[in-house]
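ok so i was messing around last nite and threw this chain in just to see what happens. nothing serious, just curious
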Amino acid sequence: MYDQVITGAQIASPDQAEFIQADIAIAGGKVAAVGKDLAGLADETFDASGLVAFPGAVDVHQHWGIYNDLSEDADSESRASAQGGVTTGITYMRTGQYYLNKSGPYTEIFPEVLERTEGRSFIDYGYHLAPMMSQHIGEIGTLIDDFGVASFKIFMFYGSHGLHGRSADQSSFLMIPPDERYNIAHFEFIMRAIQQARRERPDRADAISLSLHCETPEIMTAYTKMVEEEGKLKGLEAYSASRPPHSEGLAVTIASYLAYETDLPTINLLHLSSAKAMDAAMKMAATFPQIDFRREVTIGHLLASYEDPADIGGKVNPPLRSRADVESLWEHVLAGNVSWVASDHACCKDEQKFGNPREDVWQGKSGFGGTEYLLPGLITEGRRRGLGWDAMTRLVCTTPAERYGTRGKGRLEAGYDADIALVRLDDPWTVRAAESFSTQEYSPLEGYQMDARVVHTFLRGRQILADGKVTGEPAGQYLRRA
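result:
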């Protein structure tokens, strides 16, 4: 009856606090049955005794091709994803400097993106697209219908900042027409266009959403100048002070009111990094109950602070914050206020990351990898803090899959894709960047003690990680969502 049966594992469910002891039967790349004594109904069995079976993690915040060639990242960073139990990754893409370093209509550029990643990835993948200019806003309906893109993004801080600091010339960095501005008015028009697209597609509306990077450029510009001129703070603490937490809170408030004004109910607030950002997000949810806000936190912001890394390898936007902010984020995770945990994985090799001198945070590039630590890190720190298995499963599997329209992902139930991460609990190991499959040679989590290890990963029933090593050829598929 079945192609394969995985036996002996305990199964993590988003709906049950306790593990389920059952076999997982696979047929045609999907879970065919979950139940007792299924081993005799398949020619092949896989003994997972002593392991916990999680649905393959759905990492909905990655950046392939931001610093490296897109085809290269699709290969190497999908390997790192499998290492972290991730079987689905959704990566952010935009026009302008970095990524493909070009501009133009997405109907011309996005086919090139798909061509460069086809046949390269070990995991299933999708894309969020950022409308950078008015022409892109007019393409939203086409991107949904013809390309299956269901989610869009606004980078609120690009008004005066580039990826790493000040950027005075918007048109050259963003490669937008000189008579256009990437500002709050542009954000409003994006929201109106997405809501119109939702109204015209009621059967798919819930899967069509807008994500926002919430930082305000005016606050950041003023504080960057002040922190640099004072010179009292160094390294990652200085970078955090230059992009202060209340800048996040203000941007969250602006974004929320715009969503209210435009009747757009599906808003995702990305990588909230601080107590003030989460406070603003919770206040806006209470103020506008008709808006279905989702709140994202990254594994990096949950595990590291600006006090931890030895160098500026932890430079990221928004910055790593204080240890008090880390504790506040965990309070919100445990209270159920965080919708999902993602990696914000952006592989930046050592030679690109660090300036000269190496310790100068203002010269360093922003972003670092982390998808390989997504599931192990959440399990490790979550167990220490009393986070339930069902909550863990929802945070990295079920909820992000449902929100972003990756139907068939995020659960180990009949009819879902047989995406499975087999995890060994109580298997201590130390994070060493040299052991990651990512091409990044450093990590702000270097030396962090993990308590859980992803041993095997399956994508649609096909093993892509065996005993911690990537196996086989890349068979990841582009996911047409919505």
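not much to say yet. Residues 57-405 form a domain with the TIM Barrel fold (CATH 3.20.20.140).
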